[in-house]
Amino acid sequence: MGHHQTVAAAVALHQADIATLAIHADSHLAVTADLAPAINVTSTYKLPEKAGVDNYGSETHVYTRETSPIRSRVEAVLGKIHDGGHAVTYATGLAAMFALLLHLKPRRIVFCAGYHGCHAVLDLYRKKVAPLEEVSITTPLAKDDLVWIENPTNPTGEVYDTRHYADHAHTYGARLVVDATMAPPPLQQPFRQGADFIVHSAAKYLSGHSDVMGGVIITRCCQDAEQLKIHRTVMGSIMGSLESWLLLRSLRTLDVRVMTQSRTTAQLVAWLNLATRGCAHDGLPANVVAKVFHGLLQTLPKGFDVCSTFPHGFGAVFTIQLKSEAHARRLSQQFSLLTAATSFGSYHSTIEWRHGIDPKQLPTTLRVAVGLESIEDLKRDWRRALNAVCTVEIKVSAKL
């Protein structure tokens, strides 16, 4: 690509939407005419003849533990779709979290709800690295403190006011990390609300196909990104070449996937919520569904500008609470379209009796992740499954 073409392309991308950035943000790193980039399987690279040991240049790949062409491309796209941040990829989401804790070395942390695996990382950090006190958001903070929110939160899909937490953290010189796994771009842009770092489990919506393990840290500061990459090289917690390639492939369709799943989820949770009124509704049985949790149904705190934080809708994960544990245990096995499985973010819908994975969750609740099936097909499946649960209960009662 010539100089004028390169400049023109940069100008076009500066004004581009996420859907366009996800497709073209890495074009400047293409080295062949292939529209689909190659999977780099090499572990090492031939060095330029005139390059010195300490003078390879930023575009020179030396050893795959440090950089690779496909990893550079996926990180370029991830950074651009997050408001031009600087992205660093990892082998898993929990590896990314541990790397960020090692980088920031907080003495205290405000950790708002969140995935139980993240709590395990905090425990490991305390045991093996340094003391880390967990404090409330109402506690006066200090410069070395860290505020960490998962937005939306797992497993309910309810949302936080990112701006509120950012302002609170910055008042004391602390920093805010937003785990945006459950609502990636285009649903939210946490940097615009004051976040200092964004993290993702790439196994979820960023990949969207249940075939990638990976984690991502996005920072506003290029120096932070470079330091994180140096640490990653030493620890070896890199995302593999195949995983990087699969993730890049998936990011091309991120916008259309996430927007579709968000719209379908909004329709589904509103429909299921009508079944909480104690009477039969549109083919759904009475007295089975107790409550539905999701950002759409949430009572929001005063002053929370939710439309600014989530301008394009909420995530595609919600929790449904049934009126009995027996109903909850049986329900996940009654669907035709929803697969009983852990994790979320893929093109297929999943449902999980969450208490079995995370004992802290009530045994009457199930976590639901909506895929790309049609809303009418999903409704039919829910009618069939909920009525099947009631039928099983009637048969059991008759035998007794």
TrEMBL record:
Cofactor annotation: pyridoxal 5'-phosphate
Swiss-Prot/TrEMBL keywords: Pyridoxal phosphate
Tree of life domain: Eukaryota
One GO BP annotation of this record: transsulfuration
Residues with PTM N6-(pyridoxal phosphate)lysine: K204
Annotated Gene Ontology cellular component terms: cytoplasm
GO molecular function: carbon-sulfur lyase activity; pyridoxal phosphate binding
Matching Pfam families: Cys_Met_Meta_PP
Annotated TM spans: none
Family: Belongs to the trans-sulfuration enzymes family.
Protein name: Cystathionine gamma-synthase
